[in-house]
Amino acid sequence: MSHRLKGALVLVAGLLLLSACTGPKAEEKPAAGAGPETTQPSGPLRVAVISHGTAGDAFWNVVKNGAEEAGRQLGVQVEYNSDGDPGNQAKLIDNAVAQQVGGLVVSMANPEALKTSIENAVRAGIPVITINSGEDKSAGYGALTHVGQNESIAGEEAGKKFRELGKKKLLCVVHEAGNVGQAQRCDGAKTGFAGDVQTLQVDISNPADAESRIRGAVQTDSSLDAVLTLNSQVAARAVSAIKAVGSRAQVGTFDLNTDVVGAIKAGDVVFAVDQQQYEQGYLPVQFLKLYRDNANVVGGGKPVLTGPDLVDKSTVDTVGRYVQRGTR
């Protein structure tokens, strides 16, 4: 065999050995068309968060804080808007679709009113994640996943807690008419309480009237020994109403704010059902970034639960620090 032929064979063998020892190299940039189809496939991701929160509602301020912090950390442009009127909320969704945002995060307190707008977003190639309420409609409308607490389970836990405290008659205070999540909370409370449960409709946008209605209910029926409010601001009104008439009823509530933390410490509120709404703002922005950049879908077809977590005197000092900074 000639020296030239031997040299060629050695070179080929070396190249084969090198090839065998080197694994496939990861692509630095995804190939065109490899990722999910969206209206904004490259460049900074723009996400519209559209909730049914009303002006001055501390709960939704925490959701907004979570979304905006995720945006800062991930380099995502987050735009938060809200409207308590379902028709106006649908228009906000339509506007976001017209502006071709890269992702939508929507709370669905009134799913039927938002159905067409959300489905139009999905048809336009905009990925949607629902939050907070409307869990049972989320997949049907084409959303990637739902982030929130299961309202029926949360209500059931609240009812059980009152039952463990030895309460016999419970008043569940609804503050937003037509909000399916609040109806589910009261229905769950009935299951967990396994006793006499009544509901009372108030208007969160009229705090003085809400307090008056709660005061009238506990004054008229002295056998009411438990009041469950579905919002931290309404809880403060319930405490005031109960004290005004000398009722023996105790208050439990959904959601936290600094007033509820103080009321738990003082013994005026016995517990709060915390759905950790900061996560409802933070996680969807993270999920949409993963979906846009890596085609990830979180949840495996099931909702991602953020609660319930019951906060009482045993945990309020720890959790209260985070409420103070606007992240719980």
Write a structural description.
The structure is a single chain. The chain has 328 residues and is α/β, with parallel strands linked by helices. 48% of the residues lie in helices and 17% in strands. It has twelve helices and twelve strands. It has helices at residues 3-21, 58-74, 86-98, 111-123, 135-138, 151-164, 180-193, 207-220, 232-245, 258-266, 277-294, 316-324; strands at residues 46-51, 77-82, 103-107, 128-131, 145-148, 169-174, 196-201, 226-229, 250-254, 269-274, 304-305, 309-311. It has a six-stranded parallel sheet with strand order 2-1-3-4-5-11, sandwiched between helices. Helix 2 runs parallel beside helix 11 (277-294) and helix 6 packs parallel to helix 7. The longest helix has 19 residues, at 3-21.
Summarize the structure.
By secondary structure, the protein is of the alpha/beta class.
Outline type: elongated
Strand order of the largest sheet: 2-1-3-4-5-11
Quaternary form: single chain
> Approximately what portion of the residues adopt beta-strand conformation?
15-25%
Unreliable stretches, pLDDT < 50, 5 or more residues? 2-40
Helix content: 40-55%
Count of DSSP-assigned helices: 12
Query: What is the string of SSEs from the N terminus onward?
Result: HEHEHEHEHEHEHEHEHEHEHEEH
What does the main sheet amount to? Answer: 6 strands, parallel
Span between N and C termini? 79 Å
Number of strands: 12
Task: Give me the Rg, rounded.
Answer: 26 Å
Q: Would you tell me the structural class of the helices and strands?
A: alpha/beta
**Mean of all residue-level pLDDT scores:** 89
